[in-house]
Amino acid sequence: MKKTTQAFTLIELLIVISIVGILATVLISNLLAARNRAISTATQAYVLDVVTGVETQRDTVTGALPIIAPSCTAASGNPGLPASVKTGTCQVIFGTTNKDFFVVNATTRNGTDYTYDGTAMKFGTSTAP
């Protein structure tokens, strides 16, 4: 009696490997896109947190902004920048005339600039590599 063994042929193995490769490519590109969206959303939330921090320091009687421009971390009340914000890019800028307005700028790790100018969140083009 002859024993037969069942095995995959080389063609079957190549087909399975190519299908796994295609699936990995699709999944990785989707994961990278989701990661970039998460970084952008976290940076926008941080900018709005800084705006809230500056507004809480506004004089309730006169409506004047603070004399000294707080840093982003001081205004938000957080000890440090979130991982989504590129180090050294978040800043609070007050108007030059009687400091009646302010702008908050921050850049994400992937290079998109976000600015809150007192009316709306605006984003610029990518400036990172």
UniProtKB/TrEMBL annotation:
Residues annotated as transmembrane: 7-33
Residue ranges of every copy of the Pilin A4 domain listed in the record: 40-123
Membrane topology value: Single-pass membrane protein
InterPro entries hit by this protein: N_methyl_site, PilA4, Pilin-like
One Gene Ontology term, aspect cellular component: periplasmic space
Tree of life domain: Bacteria
Subcellular location: Cell outer membrane; Periplasm
Keywords: Cell outer membrane, Membrane, Periplasm, Transmembrane, Transmembrane helix
NCBIfam families per record: IV_pilin_GFxxxE
Name under which the protein is recorded: Pilin A4 domain-containing protein
Naturally occurring in which organism (per UniProt): Deinococcus puniceus
